[in-house]
Every structure is written in C-alpha cells, then in structure tokens.
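As a warm-up, study this chain.
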Amino acid sequence: MNRPAGSVSAFVDRHFLHFNAAALKDAAEGYSRHIDAGGQMLVAMGGAMSTAELGISLAEMIRAGKVHAICCTGANLEEDVFNLVAHSHYKRVPHYRDLTPRDEQDLLEHHLNRVTDTCIPEEEAMRRIERIVLEEWLAADAKGERYFPHEYLYRVLRSKVLEPLYDANPRDSWLLAASDMNLPMFVPGWEDSTLGNVFAAHAIGGRFRSVHTIKSGIEYMMALADWYRQTSVRAPIGFFQIGGGISGDFPICVVPMLHQDLRLPDVALWGYFCQISDSTTSYGSYSGAVPNEKITWGKLAMDTPKYVIESDATIVVPLIFAKVLGW
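Now compare it with the structure written out below.
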C-alpha cells in the first residue's frame, strides 16, 4: 500500500530496516496479515502502560476492530480509569533519576504515587474511583451477585457516573473503548493492584458478606478457556504481548491447559506471536524466553509467525499500532 509521504507508516517503511527497527516493521506487517486473513488478536499488557497513556493508540485499535480480547494486570485495568478522571492532577517528574530519598518522601507526603517519571494523585484518582466502585461492590454483595474485576469497572463506565468527572479525552481511554465494544477481558492476579488492596482492606474490615463477590483468577482462566475454544474454531487467534509477567504468562498457557490437562483434541495453537520486552533470556526469566521455547510447551507451532522486539514498549507499541491502523 502506498502511504502519504508524511505518515508514520511511510516513515517506518523508509527507516526501520534493520535490527529491532526491522523486527518492529515485520511484526506490524505480520499483525496486519493475521487480521486481514480473518484472524483475531489477544493483547497481553504488563508494565505501566495505562499510566504511559498507551490508550491513545490502543483505544483506536479496539474501535477499529484490530483487538479482540485483552489480558492485563490489575494495575493497567485501573490506571486507565485513574487517568480518565484525574489527568490534570498527575505530576510529571522528568528528572526522577536525581530524586533523593527526601524528595521521594515529599511526594509521599503530598499523596503522589510515583511510576517512573509520572506521579498518580491519590485523592483525585485512586480514592475517587474507590468511592464509586465500592458502591458497585457493596450493591452486588448485598444481592449475592458476583462479577469479575473488569466487569465492575465496565458497570461504572456504562452508568455514566464518571462522565462529569472526565479530566482526559474519553477517546484516549482504552478501557472505555473496550467497555463500548464489550471486549472480552482477563485480569489475572487482580489482588496485586490498588483496587485489589482496597477490596481486601474492606473485606478485612467486614464490609462484605463474601470475598467471592469478586470472581477469582481460576474463574478468569475458565472464562479464557471458554472464549478461546469458541473463537479458535472460527478464526485463528494471535498473541501480542506487551512486557512480561502474569499478563503474558497467564493467557498463553490456556492452549496447553486445554490440550494437555483437559485432554481436548484438535486445540488450535496460537496463530501469531509477538513479544516486546527488555528482559534478557540468559537470566532465566520466562518474559525473556525466545518464542521457540514456547514450542516445547505446546503453545506455538513450528510455523507460527514469531517476532521479538527487544526495546521500550512505550516507544514500540504506538508505532506498531500506527502502522497496523495505516496512519
């Protein structure tokens, strides 16, 4: 396809010719081929991508039908909504490497929680969302209803209660786009998040009849298995992994679980794989493992298109998404 001379895609085509740059270009083109052939794509998102405002491009990918399911950490789930209601209250600290322990203590005393060069304001972001989602938790608990963590935030967004509080462009919220599209979502290890800690604190304080008002990680795996089985019979599913950790490890294991543990026949392997990571293979980390290692675990096939980009996801992902979107 001929691109306008000033487009991002044309820039990538002209300049990204070798090494990690070429891997980026190849992965983006492989992503497009997978989607154009009728495939679907699961995006796995670790790190602090929501605070990095990845939603600016991810929301467009969701609306364009280029993303069909998301597996993310609890932090990414909530931090997109934090930014949505408190964007102007965030504090950027570009010289974070120069901060002294006293400087860090000052940020704490001003209720600013630092994520690298960006501080999330506790009252305007975390506590504001806590008060609103707590009402959803309590209402469900009183009725004996149970929902997944992302479903509670979907309910909050769909109630429109946050609209008067929007402090960022709602089109830049990937979770709002996902809610509008009713995108399948999987959030393993949600307990390891601000709202997960908040729920635990209220549970310890006796606010809930049952801790099971929040559905569990095992139930998330069961829901993922159901989605994968239903989807893979009609379309190959790709796996686009941003960062490492549980958001990537959890969903990719659904294939060997279905085949090797549940012993189902003819379980389709992942049809595309791309990982963006700065983890080093020689350290023994799963996040740094090259894709071929996943063949031995029954996750990828020998001929699955595989890409690894060893770079900063906050730089790489928007460029890939721009190229997939034809920008």
